[in-house]
Structures are given as structure tokens and as C-alpha cells.
Amino acid sequence: MSRKIIDASKFSLTEWLKVLFTNPNSIFPNNHFPNEAAKDEYLKKIKRIPEKKVKDLLRILLPVTGYSQLDIINYSAVKNIGGAKSKRIIESNEYLRKIATGRSDIWEGLKWILDLLPSHPKEAILILEAYFTANMHFISDHQIWSNADCIDIITAKYYDLEHPQSLLLDIDPVEFEWLVEELYKELGYSTELTKKSNDQGIDINAYRNEAGKKEKIIIQCKRMTKTISSPYVRDLLGIVSSRKATKGVLVATSEFSRESRKFSDENPRIELIGYRSLNKLLNQHLGTNWPLKMKYIFRNKRMEIDKLKTDN
Fold first, then answer.
1. What is the CA radius of gyration of the chain?
2. Residue 7 φ/ψ, nearest 5 degrees
3. Model confidence over 214-255: pLDDT tens digits?
4. Are 221 and 176 in contact (CB under 8 A)?
5. How far apart are CA 119 and CA 128, in angstroms?
6. Is the dihedral of CA 64, 69, 75, 78 positive or negative?
7. Burial letters for 48-60: b for 16+ Cβ neighbours within 10 Å, e otherwise?
8. Which of 91, 188, 229, 281 has its CA 20 to 30 A from that of 152?
9. What domains are defined for the chain?
10. What backbone phi and psi angles, to 5 degrees, belong to 148?
11. Strand pairing category for 247-252 and 270-273
12. In sequence order, which residues have a C-beta less than 8 Å from that of residue 110 and are 6 or more positions away?
């Protein structure tokens, strides 16, 4: 007797989640959201959903080790070409080689990326994107949608998680500079903190010297509560020009006035990073637990400074 599969394509989010967590094999789809309305509703409320429940959903949606009937169809299509050409195609493709050797784990599971959360959401997303790039010619539309839904869930839960602004207002201005420096190191820059006696308004110099990516960036850090007005931004452009820098970045614990944003939009050599954007960058590159990491970043920086003083 064949098992009856329920069409869940018109289910509400509540209906779909209820069946998904109680009897996932009874509905279809069970590896991605049933429709856009359900997905939009989930992503809008994800900040209020406990992390454990989000991971429980990802655990169901992430690819599992195994194979599908589509894999056999793909293999048969190549096999039917016949002769040396067929053999050459199969030998040159890991996916087809697995099918040819009778492997039952044609698709390698990705549930292990849950161990990257919450500390390394960027790496988890990069893995999902690489998985799609490597396999997009062979997987079904439903597997593609599953991959996209997992990326959207991780992005919404971990990149967009907003920490209290007070976390940055409670640290020293110098510690704020250290945190921003750590962020730019994670972004792939070589960094240098300026000496306060002759910094000319610059807190951090950041460099990239790779071919095609050469940059010299000057960074100002403003640990402030009030909205930052345009004179600060205009002054930064003057420093950028005098220092022949590629770009100037003003990183702040508050936000920028409309005039500041307008001035920045009109001058592409100026970038403004207010608290919301900074929070998202920290989540993305230092992990959503970056508030817990701050004390280690500051401790290591103090040790580095003390060592330089001793060596000199």
C-alpha cells in the first residue's frame, strides 16, 4: 500500500511547521518553505524565534547524505551517450563517478554546518553557496529552493540580529578603535593604529596590496550617541585627498544626518558606517557572539601593545 503524501504548497506557515516537526515524510515540500507567504512570515518574525528552534528547522531543511531518482536519470542520460565519450564524462565528474560506483551517499549531508552557528554565519553561507555552485546542474528545483531558504534563514537570524547600542557605548573610545581594527582585519586588510600625537583625525590605516585590489583606506572611529552632522564627513574628505587615500571610512556608534548621507552619496570616496550597518558587519565577520569576544580582542591588543613597548 503506497503512502499518501499531502500537498503542502498552500499551507500556512503554522500548518506547515506543525506537520514538518511531527511527520515530515507525510508532506511535500518538506525540504523548503511551502510558498513565499510562509517564508516571508517566518523571516519577519525570526528575531523573536529562539535559536534552538531555528536550528531545528535548518536541521530538517539542510541536505542529507543519500541520492534521489533524479540522480539515476542524470546518470542514465550520460551513460546512453555511449562509447569513450560517455566514459570520459563520467570519469571527469565526481557526482557521476559516485553513481557509477554504486555509492549510496551521492549527496553529502550538510547538517554539520550547524556547528558554525552562531560564531561563523559567513562561513556557513559560503559553504551552502559552494555546494550549490558545484551541484546546480544536477539537483532538482526543490533542492535549489531548499539551499536558498537555508541561506535566507541564516542571513536573517545571524546577520540581522541587532545587539544593544549600549554595548559599544560602554567601552572606551580606544577599545572601540580596537574592535573596528579587528573587523577590518577580518575583512582582509592589513591595519595600523595611528599614534594619537599626530593622527590628523585618523584612527586606523587599512591596506590591501593584492593585484587588482590595491587600496589605502583611512578610518575614523566615532563613539558617540548624537547624530553625526555633515562637517565631520566633509573634514574626512579633505583628509582623504591630502593623504592620497583610496577611501575614507567613518565608523560610528550612532547614525548620520540626512546631509551627511547626501554628501557621502555624492562623494564615492567616503563611506559611512552607522551603528546598524556596523552591527551587521560585526555579526557577519566576527559572529553574532561578538559582544562576548570583545574582552578577548581587547586583552590580546593590550598584550600586543605591551610587547611592542618592551621590545622598543
1. 25
2. -75, 110
3. 999 999 999 999 999 999 999 999 999 999 999 999 999 999
4. yes
5. 16
6. negative
7. ebeeeebeebbee
8. 188
9. 6-64+109-159 (no CATH), 166-311 (3.40.1350.10)
10. -65, -40
11. parallel
12. 62, 63, 127, 128, 131
